[in-house]
Structure formats: C-alpha cells, structure tokens
C-alpha cells in the first residue's frame, strides 16, 4: 500500500446516509442557500479582475476536491480499478473546467455562452441535487460533504453570475446556453464512444448514450425505445428545466426595461 493509498484509506470515515429532508439535508440546504445568496450579493459589483479571482477560486476548489474523489473511488471503492461512471465530464462536472477557462477568455460570444450556461443548466443541476438528494448522499463523510459542497458551489456560481450581470438575461442569452449545452453533450457522447470498450459500457457521460440512462423515467424510455430515442427527449427536458431557471431573470429584466422606457417617456 503506497502513501497516497494510505492517505485515502485514512479518510474513509463511514456514516449513515443522511435521509432526504432529514436534519442534515435541510440544515445544509437552507444555510448553504443563504450563504450563496449573501455572497452573490456582496460580490455583485466585481470587476474583471475580481470576477477572475472568484471563479478561479471556485474552480480550484472543484478541481482539488474532484481529484480526491477520483482517488477515493480508485483506491478505496474500486480496489485499484478505475470507476468509469465517475469520469469527470457529467453535466455538474463541467463548471470545474468553465470556472478556470471562462474568466481568461476574450470578452465575446464564447465567454458569454459559458456564463449563460452556468446560470441556467448548472444552476438547475445544483438545485435539483438538493431537491432530489439521492445522488449526493453516501456512506462516507468525505464523499457526502464533497457532493453537498460541490453542488452548493454550482448554485453560488449561478447566483453570483446573475447578480453581477454576467448571467443569461435575454432569449438570445438562453439560446447561447442551449448551444453550449448541446455542444458539451456532443463532446460527452464522443467520450462515451471512445471509452466504451475499456469501460465495458459503464461510461455514461451526460446520460446521452449509448449506455442506458440510469435516470428515472428516461431509463424506461431508453430500455423500451432505445437510447437514440431517449437522448433527444432527455436533452429537451433538461433544456426546458434550464429555461425555468432563466425565466425569473428574464421577466425581471423585462420589467426593468419597461420601467426605464416609461421613465424616459414621462
């Protein structure tokens, strides 16, 4: 057993899985949301340099904790065998890359699309994890805390980008987030194909196929009609959910614009 493995094994503290809507889940959720809202409000006036510091800090946290998670699954759970289903390119894994890439890009369509994506699709993923927490509770303290903190970080980034005026505000912005989502889904599908054989069909990035989706409802569709039928339905459903994240901001911006127009004509 090498030093790294000993370190991982030494942090494999077991726990009883927190119950959905039990004390651990509810306290963490409400306190976490309050902290996210407060921090987003306090950081709403960040300039270019401040924005870079905020996003890179979150990205660094996500990368470091993801490395720990990968090692934990490899050494402790997999017994020296890589667990392909946790390959770091799921929908909720993408901010780990975007947070350290987007702030350094030239201001324009690509950077904006990344910000819009994180305020719609990733905000949706973060919130859904706490609404239906079965995917973030584990039998180990470190994995549970990792999952809870990770998805709360996604919520914070979404709130922060919205509060700082960098999030999706118009239908054009939402469209750019959908294009980014579909592009990333295409990359995920290619990853699934490339690693299909070495993973023995266990790789399911973005749940777009060719493996059967493990998600409720979509699993039944994939098993009955095939993954190629389920995939477009799933992509549409996620895009619709992201639209619901975008809608309150869009309506708020519309009201602000109407008030501004009325003030200008009065």
Features:
mainly alpha, globular, 10 helices, 67% helix, 266 residues
Walkthrough of the structure:
- With 266 residues, this protein is mostly helical.
- It is 67% helix and 0% strand.
- The longest helix is centred in the C-terminal third of the chain and has 39 residues.
- The protein is globular and about 75 Å long.
Number of strands: 0
Rg from Cα: 20 Å
Number of helices: 10
Q: What about the largest sheet?
A: none
- Helix-strand makeup class: mainly alpha
Overall outline: globular
Average pLDDT rating = 96
Show the helix and strand layout.
Blueprint: H1 3-9, H2 23-42, H3 48-77, H4 95-101, H5 109-118, H6 121-131, H7 141-163, H8 171-194, H9 218-225, H10 227-265
Outline of the structure:
The protein has helices at 3-9, 23-42, 48-77, 95-101, 109-118, 121-131, 141-163, 171-194, 218-225, 227-265. With 266 residues, the chain is an all-alpha fold.
